[in-house]
Specification:
Ribosomal Protein S8, Chain: A, domain 1; Mal/L-sulfo/L-lacto_DH-like_sf; 44% helix; 2 domains; oxidoreductase; Hypothetical Oxidoreductase Yiak, Chain: A, domain 1; 343 residues; 7-stranded mixed beta sheet; alpha+beta; 12 strands; Mal/L-sulf/L-lact_DH-like_ah; Mal/L-sulf/L-lact_DH-like_NADP; oxidoreductase activity
Length: 343
């Protein structure tokens, strides 16, 4: 029986990367995907941590990811940078396009990265933080597969459709939020099911459209958008901007393509980068003005989004990432046979 351990983020990333390499992923896909998954563990966001490894492997085994694909940058010199992932995981496509996105945003004040034909199975905040680290503000969004009913509806039509934003700060961690437009991320519903915990009221409906707190019934039925019609409208906006507008799959089309919700969703992604200095155009220091706002928020005793993540990150850097015996056993099993549990 495996024992609980504590491991550094770097060592865990190397271990996860080796699992993906053994499963046939290219070095770029393996390294970038492992880094993003371990970022979830490091930041105490278990729903985006190593729990996701098996879903990635299932998707590869099902032939819905091209493990050796090399994303292709399509750069015409304009503020719209395109990356054809060619069926790879989105993390690899983002890594290919990031340097050009940053350069275009600095040149024009605003730039967009369009990623097509990717499998997106990760959080958005690692991408946002890669952009804020360059002194740029950022937004990112993508559809998913149809698991969310629109406000007033009763059947899956929209995805959980995450949306993220980041603002760079010179002497502090960036201001970052990253949330699903459903009441709860699907990964969190899965964790509730695994742990036998009921969902909060108002999270989901069963397959007959009746409210439920049973995670299994929710997964068989539909989740609900946060904030009623407001969350539903934002989710629909993401379907339009990050699917219809960029010539990629909507959440309904992604589900049709996969035929199941047990695999990573295949679709596109839209990332925007902004230069605050270019937009301010000398009308004051945008970073100083932002700090005034942040300090006013903190001065009321409120927290900035992601503060808990950044605190967990500091602990992980100093003390390592604790893994349960079950998590260690999963890693050991996947190291022995990456596809052993996927048949």
């Amino acid at each position: 029986m495996a024992q609980p351990i504590t491991v550094s983020p770097e060592a865990l990333a190397e271990r996860v990367s080796r699992i993906f390499l053994a499963a046939g992923l290219s070095p770029l896909q393996a390294e970038t995907l492992a880094a993003t998954i371990v970022a979830g563990e490091r930041d105490a966001c278990k729903s985006h941590g190593i729990y996701r490894i098996e879903g990635c492997l299932r998707t590869v085994a099902a032939g819905k990811v091209q493990p050796q694909a090399e994303p292709e940058l399509q750069d015409d010199g304009s503020p719209v940078v395109r990356v054809d992932a060619k069926g790879a995981f989105s993390t690899a496509a983002f890594a290919v396009g990031l340097p050009v996105l940053v350069a275009r945003a600095r040149q024009h004040g605003l730039a967009a990265m369009v990623v097509n034909s990717c499998t997106h199975i990760s959080a958005l905040w690692p991408e946002i933080e890669a952009i804020t680290a360059e002194g740029l503000a950022a937004m990112a969004m993508c559809p998913s597969y149809a698991t969310v009913a629109p406000a007033g509806g009763s059947a899956p039509l929209l995805g959980t459709n995450p949306f993220a934003f980041g603002w760079p700060r010179k002497d502090a961690s960036p201001y970052v939020f990253d949330f699903a437009t459903s009441v709860m991320a699907r990964g969190d519903v899965e964790l509730h099911r695994i742990e036998g915990r009921p969902l909060p009221e108002g999270t989901a409906v069963d397959r007959d459209g009746n409210p439920t707190t049973d995670p299994a019934e929710a997964l068989a039925g539909a989740m609900l958008p946060f904030g009623g019609h407001k969350g539903s409208a934002i989710s629909t906006m993401i379907e339009l901007l990050a699917a219809a507008m960029i010539g990629d799959l909507t959440s309904t089309e992604a589900l049709d393509y996969l035929g199941t919700t047990t695999l990573g969703p295949h679709h596109g992604e839209l990332i925007l980068a902004f230069s605050p200095e270019r937009f301010a155009a000398g009308r004051g220091d945008p970073f100083a003005r932002a700090e005034t706002l942040f300090q006013a928020i903190l001065g009321q005793g409120a927290r900035l989004p992601s503060q808990r993540r950044f605190e967990a990150r500091k602990r992980a850097a100093a003390e390592g990432i604790p893994l349960t015996a079950e998590e260690v056993e999963m890693l050991e099993r996947l190291e022995r046979a990456p596809f052993g549990a996927q048949a």
